[in-house]
Amino acid sequence: MNRKEVRGGGSRRGNDTDMRRKEKENRKLQLELSQMRIELQMALDSKDSDIEQLRTLLQALSVQSMDSASLSSGPDEQDREQSIPCMVLDIE
Known about the structure:
Helices cover 86% and strands 0% of the residues. With 92 residues, the protein is mostly helical. The chain has one domain.
């Protein structure tokens, strides 16, 4: 037997009150959890946006770096590579 059964009729009102209080607490916690999820989702969305902006910036800098490297080497660099004598070894 458990105590609630032993108390009899008077305990029903106590059980109802206790049940309402627990339901109210449950609703309060559910609402708080929902609000926290919304806040976390907003923070996550913001971080995703920041990451996307940084990727775009990194890509732009990478392209700019390639363009400047291409301009600095210019045709002279290519001409020098072609004018370097190649050595061929015959191995018999």
